[in-house]
Amino acid sequence: MMKLYRSILFRVLVVLGAAAIANAQALAPAADEKAEAVLKKAIQNLGGDKYLNVKTQIGRGRFSLMKDGVTVSFQSFTDVIVFPDKERTDFKGGGGRSIQTNVGNTGWTFDNEAEVVKVQGEKQIQGFKHGIRTSLDNLLRGKWRNEAKLTYIGKRPATLGRRNDVVRLIYDDGLAVEFEFSADEGFPVKSIHTRTTADGEEFKEEDRYAQFVDVGGIRAPFIIDRFTNGAQTSRINYETIEYNRPVPDSIFAKPANLKDLKKDLKL
Fold it and tell me: Is the CA virtual torsion 91, 97, 98, 99 positive or negative?
């Protein structure tokens, strides 16, 4: 009799457990199909699997600081990325050169005027990570999955009577980033997010993507304009981009010999 009772009780628990799981699944938010469709279209436009399978990127060009619509200074740069979290950028201009390098939770900088290599502080490292989390590549290559939620916001007016599809990425810690894609062509147009200063002041950062160029079957924006609270503050203008070239780990290592850092980066 006791064995029969236990058998019945076990079956009841199994049924109740299955029902609870079904209810939980019904209540859980489904993946936003519209948002995923916008991403899929953009990925195909940028090169499909070729874009998704990029492991390294070497970009060269000019970085300009802007004020009131005018370039106030500029430097040439070489930017080397090994996805997902290694980056070294060498700047050169005005008789000087500097280097910023990040690898995950570590980083260092070099300024040839000071002739010293400095370990990056927590604020600089967090700034690097923030840049990754709000980047277009991070969105389209799906590195945010399991730590953020993607939703479709709707269509937003753009220039010349056009409209953009808007998706929003919200991370578990509350960071929200909106990305706009042209509704017709499906190309990335801009990304927008809000940051807060140490004094608690909020400001809006916006990156606008333009001049898409085909590089071996991968299309990349060769111009990225940064706007802060509606005013343009900088421009990245690529002259060349190379994908999937071998990149030695040694260029990311904190150097012991400063003489090597004063030379142009050779790859």
Answer: positive
Cis peptide before 221 (omega within 30 of 0): no
Torsions phi, psi of 2, nearest 5? -65, -40
Residue range 41-73, pLDDT digits in tens: 999 999 999 999 999 999 999 999 999 989 999
Nearest CA to 235 out of 262, 261, 206 is that of 206
244 and 267 in contact (C-beta within 8 Å)? no
* Domain assignments of the chain as residue spans, ordered by start: 33-261
Measured CA to CA, the distance from residue 86 to residue 125 in angstroms comes to 12
Written as six digits, the tokens of 123 are: 């604020």
Nearest to 237 by CA among 206, 205, 210: 210
> For 33-261, CATH number?
2.50.20.10
pTM surpassing 0.90?
no
Number of DSSP helices (H) and strands (E) in the chain, helices first: 6, 13
Amino acid, res. 195: R
Taking the C-alpha atoms of residue 101 and residue 221, their distance in angstroms, rounded to an integer, is 23
**CB neighbour class for 51 (10 Å; exposed up to 12, middle 13-18, buried from 19):** buried
